[in-house]
Amino acid sequence: MSSLDNKKILLGVTGGIAAYKSAVLLRALQAAGAEVRVVMTSAAQAFVTPLTFQALSGHPVYTELLDPGQEASMDHISLARWADFILVAPATADFIARVANGHANDLLSTLCLAATVPIALAPAMNQGMWLNVATQGNIETISGYGYQLWGPDEGDQACGETGPGRMLEPEALLAKVMDFFAPGPLQDVSVLLTAGGTQEPIDPVRFVGNRSSGRMGYALVEAMRDLGAEVTLISGPVSLLPPTGIEFHSIQTAQEMYAEVMARASDCNIFVAVAAVADYRPGEVAKEKIKKRNDSLSLEMVRNPDILADVSALDDAPFTVGFAAETEQVEAYAEAKRLAKGVDMIAANQVGTSEGGFESDRNALTLLWEGGRESLPMMNKSQLARQLADRIKTHYLKVENARNEN
To answer: For the residues 191-200, what does the mean pLDDT come to?
Structure first.
């Protein structure tokens, strides 16, 4: 059985001479069991006609962002949601520059901006264009966004020059796609993860909450999923779409999150508590909207259950990872939390600053475990999540191997 059986691949083709190789790549992906749809930019059609890809794929080729006929069959957002993976091959310098700057002025760039699935780009351009400082800056930017860069290769180029910039051959790209979908190191490992914040009602229209956006948690869900884990996400209210390929449960309050977590914690292998759970909630919730009658209002707050501590205290507790968001003495407070709650690992970050934290796309973490620590520097949360997932995987497997030896 191929790792690509029944996988849905969106193949993007941009305007480079290497576009003719995309036809070979299309057939190779199909032969490996994938279902493929092709999206072409207008420049790509100057090198290879849409009819070529339609004849090879057996499906219509998508070319226009606002084409009534194509929108009637599958609108561009639905197409982004249809795919399990997006591969742009070739990816020209122009296309890389546009996605690096968040442009959505054609169908393919719009799909990439709207997609929640992994995206890989196979660069193809003149060696001078590849080495240009602007292109390298764009590469760094999209790598921070979580895009994968496959290539380029070095060698003779169509322009007669030699150097880096050749698109990887179709066989090499096929191998990378197959490797991506091959069983990951966390295959058959169940991960339970919380994300977002909680909202504790004061009355029917007001609540006590926090500034958690859920971005770090959702990025970590995708990273753990891509390592092969079976992921269950329990999320507080956020403005993010649930990642594909996972089990999803939505909650509002800390008590609801506690109930959802404790119902599943004994059956998971890894528990990661990323959610910013309210420590306290109003002791009484007014049945009607509280009217503005006095200059001040007092609320009696009662403590919420401690999800992280109760999971780590289970008789057959999973490998447990906590988060500590602190405004000062970050490492000291995080280490005290790790010891007090008995967790295997804690990820600490500083909030309340101008860079990183709840409402930012970037973050930095200090990881602490028994006898060790590691700092992950400030970077995009998608990239940071993949590094964190790798560290969790490494420590979990080490614990499991030691347990099996005993």
So the answer is: 96
